[in-house]
Amino acid sequence: MDNTAKETRMRFCEYGQEHVFKFWEILSEDSRLRLLQQAKSIDLEYLSKIIQSVLHERVVDPQFYKDIQPANFIKRPNSATDQLRCNEIIQLGEEKIRDGKVAIFTVAGGQGTRLGCVIPKGTTPITPIKKKSLFQVFAEKIRAAEKKYECQFHWVILTSDRNHNETIEFFGKNDSFGIENIHFIKQGLMPAVDFDGKILMESRDRIAMYPNGHGGALKALEQTGMLTMLKNRGIDTISYFQVDNPLVKCVDPYLVGVHEKNKAQITSRMVKKLYPEEKVGVFCKKDGQLYVVEYSDLPRECAMAKTETGDLKFCAANVGIHLFSVPFIEKFGVTIQSEIPYHASKKTIPTIDNLGEPLMPDSTNGITFEMFIFDAFPFATKNIVVESKRSETFSPVKNADGLDSPKTCKQDQLRLFAHWLLQAGADIPTDANGLPPFDIEISPMFADNEKDFLKKWAALEARPAIGPGQYIE
Ligand code: UTP
């Protein structure tokens, strides 16, 4: 160990990061080993380039957005002909699903800082009555689809070092909610640095390392050998979604059909942006390529621009639901990964003081580095964006209170369940916003979309009267 330790320490010295080993002399053998292993996993040359670009340059030149245009998208069907066309596409998607060509991929490696997570976000109780976790909701949607399409899906869950063991434990305790083919893969980590670019220590023998963003997801699929395993099983499409949105269709035959029909590399769901300042990224195009432009980067004149009919011009909000073709992910691993930028976010990072004692700063003291999955989009030669109804697609849990919180997510679920019941002719009171005055819940195992709900409800021999606490399964 001595020689390797010497070399590693010298390298850190060359890059001005020698403080990482400040307490080396008083560390135990075990602690030294741990620190050394962590230190060796860091590519210092790469890190210093990223620090340089993030601290001293803008990730994207503001000029870039000058001539950005709204992206084209496939609108929701609004005529009988549209619906017929849509049904054909659904059929195509269903065939592909039945043939076992689609795997499911949930990215759950984030930290859920805004929600104040001390547990993996996917384990957060989310449904109105049964308080099912986000993971259970997805599992039940997947099991319902397995039953419907008489197939078994491979479900891959991306974790990070910071929540991997707890996530696996949670699934273990719950018998994986009945899912047979479940896989957990870990994403990469990046050290956090202070505002001078110095690596932050979490303790005397531990560098503060954080997950490298959802942009690390595709690389993780490839690097862990998961992609090869899926490919060897005949899978050619990956259905990607974020852990924070219980309204997502984990298995979406229409989206799969569109992807297949267009031989797309990436096909994404979008919902209409609600108001100009809404904090969502929007799909845009420039020089024939698709981009997601973050709300903070979209020039104000673009955010405010309206069409002739008074709608927002840049209206296609990204909701983090995408299909990726396997060959695209392979290409990503080989050539694209190193091209996509790291974004810095200022964070309050627990660290140590000069004496090596724990220090919890009361304001931001450094930055973490993340890649964004959508920075891969311009590298695809065929991207498709498909509109969907927000009320049946997207209600993320991001914040502890206010917008996109557990409270709004519960209300969105209640509204959706009440809407299905009303469409089915059931008697349920709702206010002007479609919200029932009491809690109800529909299990994804009964139905996870309106069409299936109407069919199942009509086929019930005895339909329950809808009142407070009604759970339909
Ligand atoms: P967010 O950008 O909302 O981040 O992630 P977050 O970590 O969940 O929450 P904050 O920002 O700390 O409050 C969107 C999705 O991407 C995943 C998250 O788990 C979530 O599903 N993600 C994010 C990863 O898988 N890895 C990451 O490094 C970051």
Topology:
Layout lengths: L1 H13 L14 H12 L3 H13 L12 E2 L9 H19 L3 E6 L26 H16 L4 E6 L4 H10 L7 E6 L2 E3 L1 E2 L6 E3 L2 E2 L1 E3 L5 H7 L2 H7 L4 E6 L10 H9 L4 E7 L9 E5 L2 E5 L6 H5 L11 E10 H11 L6 E5 L3 E2 L5 E2 L6 E5 L12 E5 L18 H18 L16 E3 L7 H10 L10 E3 L1
Parallel strand pairs: 2-3, 2-10, 3-4, 11-19, 20-21
Antiparallel strand pairs: 1-12, 5-9, 6-18, 7-8, 10-14, 11-14, 12-13, 15-18, 16-17
Helix pairs in contact: 4-9, 7-11
Bound molecules: uridine 5'-triphosphate (UTP).
Uridine 5'-triphosphate binds next to loops.
Short description:
By secondary structure, this protein is an alpha/beta fold. 32% of the residues lie in helices and 19% in strands.
Question: What is the topology, as strand order, of the major beta sheet?
Answer: 4-3-2-10-14-11-19
Separate helix tally = 13
Beta-strand portion reads 15-25%
Helical fraction: 25-40%
Kindly report how far apart the N and C termini lie. Answer: 59 Å
Q: What general form does the structure show?
A: globular
